[in-house]
Design a protein that fits this description.
heterodimer; A: mainly beta; 5-stranded mixed beta sheet; 4-stranded antiparallel beta sheet; B: 114 residues; mainly beta; 0% helix
Chain lengths: 111, 114
């Protein structure tokens, strides 16, 4: 599975857009980029995924660079409840398709 | 929204005892997983299960671990002889067989071995 690199921590003001970067320079052509988050000690929560096009859902937007070597998760109007650890994961479509979690980015939303 | 349910939420056990952690995956999901997270560390893959057999396991998943789907709804993780270092949050997850949708994780079982 391709590795990802994320900053260990970020801060964002409440109401602002939070932009979380991720590098995945060794991603292969059939691997998707997934984002999950973990609030305190709860189970990881799926946010969004994409292959090469930008994606948007009710939670977030995902911007993937044209060369697919990096991506950015955007929370458009961050709230205090968005404080969590955010994981960028590259998912293989082969085999059991397990998720391999890194250390993620600890995002703190400040009032 | 469908949920993955895990019981118990917290289990305390003595070292050397057997524990069984239980999970009820989402009903139309066919891939099941166990992950664990030691306090302060990252989420680690343990095992995946499909079609009544293990499809992949990590090096953490040694002979003291086993998984079972005893009926049509439950998915269990058994630790035969617990050690202090087995203390962790254990998360069950499931996903559909097709499509690219995300996994759904349960809220976890906190296992404390004393």
């Amino acid at each position: 599975d391709a590795k990802t690199t994320q900053p260990p921590s970020m801060d964002c003001a409440e109401g602002r857009a939070a932009n979380l970067p991720c590098n995945h320079s060794t991603i292969s052509g059939n691997e998707y980029v997934y984002w999950y988050r973990q609030i305190h000690s709860q189970g990881p929560q799926y946010i969004i995924h994409g292959l090469k096009n930008n994606e948007t859902n009710e939670m977030a937007s995902l911007i993937i660079t044209e060369d697919r070597k990096s991506s950015t998760l955007i929370l458009p109007h961050a709230t205090l409840r968005d404080t969590a650890v955010y994981y960028c994961i590259v998912r293989s479509l082969q085999g059991a398709q397990k998720l391999v979690f890194g250390q993620g980015t600890r995002l703190t939303i400040n009032p | 929204e469908p949920e993955v349910t895990q019981t118990p939420s917290h289990q305390v056990t003595q070292m050397g005892q057997e524990v069984i952690l239980r999970c009820v995956p989402i009903s139309n999901h066919l891939y099941f997983y166990w992950y664990r997270q030691i306090l302060g560390q990252k989420v680690e893959f343990l095992v995946s299960f499909y079609n009544n057999e293990i499809s992949e396991k990590s090096e953490i998943f040694d002979d003291q671990f086993s998984v079972e789907r005893p009926d049509g709804s439950n998915f269990t993780l058994k630790i035969r002889s617990t050690k202090l270092e087995d203390s962790a949050m254990y998360f069950c997850a499931s996903r559909e067989i097709t499509g690219l949708g995300g996994y759904t994780f349960g809220s976890g079982t906190r296992l404390t071995v004393v």
